[in-house]
Amino acid sequence: MVDVPARVIGSGLRIEVAVGNASDRELLARSLGAEGYAVEGFDAEGTAGREADLLIVDPPSLDRLRQRIDQLHTEASPVVFPVLLLTKSELTSSTQISRELGTTAADILRIPTTRAELSARVCNLLRLRQLSLQQFHEYNLVREVTLQETTELGLAKAVCRIITRFKGHAAELW
Question: Which GO terms describe its molecular function (predicted)?
C-alpha cells in the first residue's frame, strides 16, 4: 500500500524513462523536461520506479524489465502506476498491443509521433495517476474517520464531518 506523497498532489511530477535508443531518451528528456517534468533514467535495481509518477518504456525494455514493472504495479496498488509503451509502428503487431494494453502498459504510443501527441498522452497518464492518488487519499480519510466510531450516531456525525470537509467547510457539527 502506498502513501500519498505531497509532491504528487502538487507539482514536481517525475517521469522515469527506460528506452534503449540514446537519442530517443535524450529527445524524451528534452521534450518533457521543457514542460516542467523531472525526467530520469530508469534502473531496475534499488528504488527505481518507486518515486516515479510515470514510466516510459520501449518493447525491449518492457521485456527486460517486466518483472520489475509488475512489482511496481503491485507495490503501488490500489493506486495506478502508469506505463507508456513507445513502439515503432512497423515493428508492433495488433496482437502485441492488445496483450500489453491494460495489463503492463496503460497506454501505447506509436512512434514517430508529434510532440503534441506525446505531451497529451503523458498528461493524460499523469492525470490518471493524480486522480488515483487523490481517490486513495480520500478513501483513507473516510476510513480513518468512520472506523473510529462505534455507534450509529457517531457514524452519522462522522459522515457529516466528511461531507463538510470534502465540500471545503471547516464547520464542527454537534
Answer: DNA binding
